[in-house]
């Protein structure tokens, strides 16, 4: 339930039909676009900096295929922010993750078209706003990320720089997802 509330954004929610799930990933078919999305069953909560104490940041991974283009697969990192105020994630290199000891920037479209107040009843009651940003990622970078022991990095937003770090148990789920769904 939490995964469904956090990981599907905007138009994807309109026509998405959960079709299958396992302990690591969930398959969602979007009838409107003909896309099949595999994503983490439950997004990974990332610890954040003191400057962002009033919110939470989650990471999800997406593998997307199209009905009309068999064999063509794309991957995205999705960042979901739930907070009392808008974070405003701009277009550009606003996500950096540590990969093999180096900070690797990821270029995304920002959250401008993916901001809403409908993050679920539990979120509305808390007065939270939900922002989502997608970042394309290559299979090679995902495999190198899986070879590490955690997800660490930073998110650049109008509210400042937010430090990101996964727990080891959450990282194990990310590693399993990458090993299963990244070809």
Keywords summarizing the entry:
183 residues, alpha+beta, eight-stranded antiparallel beta sheet, four-stranded antiparallel beta sheet, 12 strands, 21% helix, 46% strand, globular, disordered N terminus
Overall description:
This protein is an alpha+beta fold and 183 residues long. The protein has one domain. The chain is 21% helix and 46% strand. It has helices at 2-7, 11-15, 121-125, 139-146, 168-181, and strands at residues 16-21, 25-30, 35-40, 44-46, 55-66, 69-83, 92-99, 102-108, 115-116, 129-136, 152-157, 160-165. The strands form two sheets. Strands 1, 2, 3, 4, 5, 6, 9 and 10 form an eight-stranded antiparallel beta sheet that branches. Strands 8-7-11-12 form a four-stranded antiparallel beta sheet, covered by helices on one side. Helix 4 packs antiparallel against helix 5. The longest helix has 14 residues, at 168-181. The radius of gyration is 15 Å and the shape is globular. Mean pLDDT is 81; it is low at 1-18.
């Amino acid at each position: 339930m939490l995964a469904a509330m956090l990981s599907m954004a905007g138009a994807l929610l309109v026509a998405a039909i959960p079709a299958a799930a396992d302990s690591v990933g969930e398959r969602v078919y979007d009838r409107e676009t003909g896309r099949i999305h595999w994503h983490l069953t439950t997004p990974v909560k990332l610890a954040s900096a003191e400057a962002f104490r009033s919110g939470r940041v989650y990471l999800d991974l997406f593998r997307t295929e199209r009905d009309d283009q068999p064999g063509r697969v794309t991957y995205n990192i999705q960042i979901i922010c739930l907070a009392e105020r808008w974070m405003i994630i701009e277009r550009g290199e606003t996500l950096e993750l540590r990969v093999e000891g180096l900070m690797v920037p990821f270029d995304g479209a920002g959250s401008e078209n993916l901001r809403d107040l409908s993050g679920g009843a539990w979120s509305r009651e808390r007065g939270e706003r939900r922002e989502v940003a997608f970042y394309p990622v290559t299979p090679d970078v995902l495999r190198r990320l899986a070879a590490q022991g955690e997800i660490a990095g930073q998110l650049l937003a109008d509210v400042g720089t937010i430090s990101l770090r996964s727990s080891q148990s959450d990282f194990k789920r990310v590693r399993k997802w990458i090993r299963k769904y990244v070809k």
